[in-house]
Amino acid sequence: MTTKTFLTRLHVLITTSLLLGSTGAMTQNGTTTPNTEEVAVLTRYEVKEGQQKTFRSVLGKYIKQANAQTDNIMAEGYHEQENPSILWIIERWSSKAAFDKNRKLLSGNKLVQPAKTIYVKDLEPLTKAAWQRKPGKDDKPITIILFVDSKPGTETTFKTVYHTAMPQFRSEPGVINYQLSQLEEDNTQFVTYEKFRNDEAFQYHLKFPPIQPVIDYLNTSIKKQPFQTGLHRLIEFAPVKRK
Description:
Elements: H1 3-12, E1 14-21, E2 39-46, H2 52-67, E3 72-80, E4 86-93, H3 96-107, E5 120-123, H4 128-131, E6 142-149, H5 155-171, E7 175-183, E8 189-196, H6 199-207, H7 212-220, E9 231-238
Antiparallel strand pairs: 1-2, 2-4, 3-4, 3-9, 5-7, 6-8, 6-9, 7-8
């Protein structure tokens, strides 16, 4: 099999892409004010057994190149802890045009079907500087993404609960970044991005008293239980930068 054919088949494996709306100007508390130009994208890949190493190499080169661009806010590559054949790219860019231009370096015109994109609004968004925080040299970071499908009429309650808890979550010593976003095409759907220095920090977070109202909501006010079915534990393979 030629390299060109192999990469074409790899790109056919793309199953999901989530295009998230981020935001821009810095405020005094380290969050940002709305800027509809910025975007973030989550892309999910299912990789056949035996192709994971090569696929990670391809994505790793893409992520390295993305991080070198001035228009890039963040770009990270992950595999799921429980299923290494599932890979993710999480990216943020200053504009949709910048994302499209860079993504051509990965996909070109070889995708058999277009990626599905879902725009979301970041709630209490982070600055670019915050997204650039790196784990320490002795850390073993883990990233959690949780997709939440709220019961209609309860989404305001969910946002209120998180609004109260977010400053406390972000101040935890084991938290690198924490972000909540709401899907624009369906305001009952949310996704969290939670990056911890290690698994111990994540376990501490689960027992952290301010999280209890969030857990109570997830146990009572989402469409499908248990809520853990929407939780993905991710291990970063690129760019793996340390302080």
